[in-house]
Model the fold of this input.
Amino acid sequence: MKPALYMTLVLGVVPLQTSLLHYFSLGGVRPDLCLVAAALIGFLAGPVEGMSVGIALGFTQDLFSAGALGLNLIAKGAVGILAGLAGRHVTNATMATFVATMVSLSLLENLVFLFVVRWGGELGDRLSALPSILLPETLLNAALGAMLYWLFTFRRPAG
Done:
């Protein structure tokens, strides 16, 4: 059951992000669904599944993008494994723990992309993207991740 679910996720999230999500952007900034999915799976299912799904999502995202092949693969795989390690090494995983993990991983990935993709640019240009792109995207990723975390961990009362 899980492999079919993960395959559907990999084949559905990336086309959704590249084709429809630009209609729902806020000021040109939109959440990274692949990052949120890799972090959520890693946090809830463990580092191995998070890394596996993150690598598959990153590879698919690299195929759909015009950027450097392999950057998303490495980044999403790292997000999956780090979220899995964070989820496994806390005594009581809560919404606050997941949101803190999501914010940290989103900021880390965005900073890596900022400095790797815009390597030849001026430092001032890269730093000016912090308040206008990186912070809003991090907040969107954290909000979407929190909603999905709540949805997947919601337990109905018995009776």
